[in-house]
Design goal:
Helix content is 7%, strand content 48%. With 382 residues, it is mostly beta strands. The protein has a domain at 1-30 and 298-373. The strands form 7 sheets. Strands 15-14-19-18-17-16 form a 6-stranded antiparallel β-sheet. Strands 1-30-29-28 form a 4-stranded antiparallel β-sheet. A hairpin with a 2-residue loop joins strand 20 and strand 21. The longest helix is centred in the middle third of the chain and has 9 residues, at 159-167.
């Protein structure tokens, strides 16, 4: 959806839920996509902030007054990803590979870490809450793992390497760039996701460009841009096992680019073109299984980002919509039409708000009232 210079007419559902609209492009000479949004909480409300990545600048909005701090923090290249840790620090990744750490209390950038090398610089990052580690990856699938307590660089892993060395030998263990003991070679039941291709076919016919990663419990999900997701089990501090691969394409020759995915409450949601695929995650002692339970058609649209809250999936679309799906029956529950360009990032502020940010032809941030979104949440059970 493109900005035509006219105002959009908001429907009643949108007006009811829309709490506020913010403009990070105010006083800026160039328009950028709102690429990332992160909320950081502090007991002193003066320091509870919404952080917005806008080009090479980091903007800060007070979540009580919604006033933007006039003192932006600027970086040497465009911000591509960011994530907060448990130590009141915000990790910033840039397109040229630079990693910066911002103190969310003092509101200053205090540290620059070793630059990530390789294709795409800092492509994606995710925080491991169980081990207090930040995982940062480039497009080639090289993941650098950092201790967030002391900012020590621990080790690197190559996801494609783990897969290639593990699949043909029944999942060897990968530990800090060393292959260790073979797993039990007894054949385990196959998952029942619909695909006419083997994992070898999936990998060999596609580029290996990593798009995004997510930690869920002791699992690492890695989404590759063309059409597959690699899944690894994290055994301990430095041991990763390739567990499974999911693809939503129909034949080895076809391609179904993945626009976004989300793992939340034992469900895996994948958006490809106009199709949403939902998998159920069934935990096992040695290996989990991933069962396709639903495919939904989304008319002339696709999802650029997803966020889970309560028993709902909130999704931002390429046409500027914010969709709310129920997790019990997978139905589209509500549609909010608040942006004039694609919605590319979402974040949650406690139990109060959902925040959406849009691409460069709109560059707005919309604050949505959660109470209006989930007004009958008591009736929904998974």
């Amino acid at each position: 959806m493109r900005n035509t210079g006219t105002f959009k007419t908001l429907n009643n559902e949108t007006r009811k839920a829309l709490h506020n609209r913010l403009s990070p492009s105010l006083n800026e000479t160039k328009r950028y996509t709102v690429s990332c949004l992160v909320f950081t909480e502090n007991l002193d409300n003066r320091y509870s902030l919404l952080w917005c990545a806008y080009g090479h600048k980091l903007k800060m909005f007070n979540t009580t007054t919604w006033i933007c701090n006039p003192n932006d923090i600027s970086f040497s290249s465009v911000i591509t990803c960011m994530c907060s840790d448990a130590c009141d620090k915000l990790w910033i990744g840039c397109v040229k590979g630079e990693i910066f750490i911002v103190d969310t209390i003092q509101l200053i950038c205090k540290t620059q870490l070793t630059t990530i090398v390789g294709q795409g610089g800092c492509q994606t990052m995710t925080y491991d809450t169980l081990q207090n580690r930040m995982l940062i990856g480039n497009r080639s699938g090289l993941i650098t793992i950092w201790n967030t307590n002391n900012r020590q660089r621990l080790f690197e892993i190559n996801l494609e390497d783990i897969y290639q060395k593990s699949y043909h030998m029944q999942q060897k263990i990968y530990k800090t760039e060393m292959l260790l003991n073979l797993r039990n070679q007894i054949e385990e039941p196959k998952t029942n996701f619909s695909s006419s291709t083997s994992p070898t076919d999936i990998i060999s016919t596609l580029s290996n460009e990593l798009k995004t990663i997510q930690i869920y419990d002791n699992l690492l999900f890695a989404c590759y841009r063309d059409d597959y997701i690699l899944i690894f089990r994290i055994i301990n501090l430095d041991t990763f096992i390739y567990e499974d691969i999911l693809s939503v394409k129909y034949t080895p020759e076809s391609s179904m680019p993945i626009h976004s995915f989300l793992v939340y409450k034992h469900q895996l949601w994948i958006s490809t073109s106009c199709i949403i695929s939902v998998f159920n995650i069934n935990y096992g002692n040695k290996k989990n299984s991933y069962h396709l339970i639903m495919k939904k058609h989304l008319e002339d649209d696709h999802l650029l980002t997803m966020l889970g809250f309560s028993n709902y999936i909130c999704a931002g679309s390429a046409r500027g919509y914010v969709y709310i799906f129920r997790m019990d029956n997978y139905e589209l529950y509500k549609t909010f039409d608040g942006h004039k360009d694609g919605v590319c990032c979402l974040c949650s502020i406690l139990d109060m708000y959902i925040i959406s940010g849009s691409q460069e032809d709109d560059t707005s941030i919309v604050v949505w009232d959660k109470e209006q979104i989930k007004d009958d949440i008591a009736t929904i059970r998974l």
